[in-house]
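queue> pop job 88
queue> type: inverse folding (structure -> sequence)
queue> payload:
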């Protein structure tokens, strides 16, 4: 059955749907839908719908896959409509635009570049960046397509790859994403312990969140095993790169090698 045939009402370019008929596919979003900030955001929108209707809310975008309809953009608006309608809001349904399903890499990019609702957290952005990497996108390409600096992209990658305990500290607000990224860059494998000490120090001072002032400035140990392996792997990629792909990929690999050399120099000086 065509998606238009399932709508409650059909306009020239938009449709009105029962939001309960629209499903969520986990691969279409990197937002933590159960986080406190997201839940508060949904609650505020639901209250607005109950008080003033939904005329001021832009349509969500949906796509059809087989017999199922999925939300592509507007996850929070969909949940807010469900909540408001369950609580008696006098609205018929949710306004929707139908689109063709995007390729996974284009969808991941749109999550980063087209979010006009609740801003994504650094962790949520890092998940989308890593998803783009899984499609063989180099950091330089991600930076170019998002309009971010290369250092911002690399910082998000580093945050995503940090130990789960560090991610947990960022999620619960014990440390900021910025501080976590900085400590990981400066302390490598020792970052987890450094941040835990900083959080303990902050709590003893009556603070709920550690800041740079709480981080003990200890000289970072240089881990040659780690960086030696990274150098070997990167040089192997350059050496084994097929001639037919050199034009597209060699510049990116050379730039990556330059960044790695900068990290090694920085850590050796520390």
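queue> result:
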């Amino acid at each position: 059955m065509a998606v238009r045939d399932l709508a409650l009402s059909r306009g020239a370019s938009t449709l009105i749907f029962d939001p309960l008929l629209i499903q969520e596919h986990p691969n279409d979003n990197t937002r933590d839908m159960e986080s406190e900030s997201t839940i508060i955001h949904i609650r505020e929108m639901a209250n607005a719908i109950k008080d003033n209707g939904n005329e001021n809310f832009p349509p969500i975008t949906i796509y059809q896959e087989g017999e199922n309809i999925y939300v592509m953009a507007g996850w929070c608006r969909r949940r807010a409509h469900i909540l408001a309608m369950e609580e008696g809001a006098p609205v018929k349904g949710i306004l929707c635009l139908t689109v063709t399903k995007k390729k996974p890499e284009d969808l991941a990019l749109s999550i980063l570049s087209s979010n006009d609702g609740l801003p994504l957290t650094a962790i949520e952005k890092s998940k989308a960046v890593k998803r783009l990497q899984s499609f063989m996108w180099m950091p330089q390409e991600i930076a170019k397509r998002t309009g971010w600096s290369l250092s911002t992209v690399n910082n998000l990658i580093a945050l995503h790859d940090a130990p789960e305990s560090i991610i947990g500290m960022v999620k619960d607000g014990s440390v900021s994403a910025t501080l976590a990224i900085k400590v990981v860059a400066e302390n490598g494998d020792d970052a987890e312990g450094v941040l835990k000490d900083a959080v303990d120090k902050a709590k003893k001072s009556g603070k709920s969140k550690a800041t740079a002032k709480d981080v003990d400035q200890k000289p970072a140990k240089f881990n040659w095993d780690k960086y030696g392996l990274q150098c070997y792997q990167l040089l192997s990629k350059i050496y084994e790169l097929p001639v037919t792909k050199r034009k597209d990929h060699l510049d990116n690999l050379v730039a990556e090698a330059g960044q790695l050399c900068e990290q090694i120099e920085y850590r050796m000086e520390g």
